[in-house]
Amino acid sequence: MPPNCNNMNIEIWSPGKENEAYIEEGMRLYFKKTAPWCSVELVVLSLPKKLATADATTARRQEEEMILKRLQSHHYLVVLDERGKMHNSVQWSVQLQQMMNMGAKTLVLLIGGAWGVTDGVKAKAKQVWSLSPLVFPHQLVRLIVAEQLYRSFSILNNSQYHHE
Length: 164
Prior knowledge:
By secondary structure, the protein is an alpha/beta fold.
């Protein structure tokens, strides 16, 4: 692995169902392109089917329980939330480089569930970022995050992909 990754792994956590075929194809493409620089994987947090009909409070509480149970001490958690701090692509790359420099083992980018992320999960986060003030479907956010990771590593490695 190139020195700038410092053996950090990246996991995109997302509650919900598996990707539609077109999303899966796009994510595989970006993960393959990012692979020379850093390992990235999607972790789909499967929710019980009965949760789909649960009220928002119950759903958020169950998602919180699942997320916190999975969270380990070596994880550097960044929650993606529409009310988080907005970064442009260059700022994403700077943030990634800072995390690598400080020796983060596994960066977890958490995409919140349909009802958002609880305060309990946000309290465990090192940072809270926003992709946009717009709201997107979760599967599309997965693809956007995969692309932004590739773009960030392209910026850090002076690739021609990103233009300013």
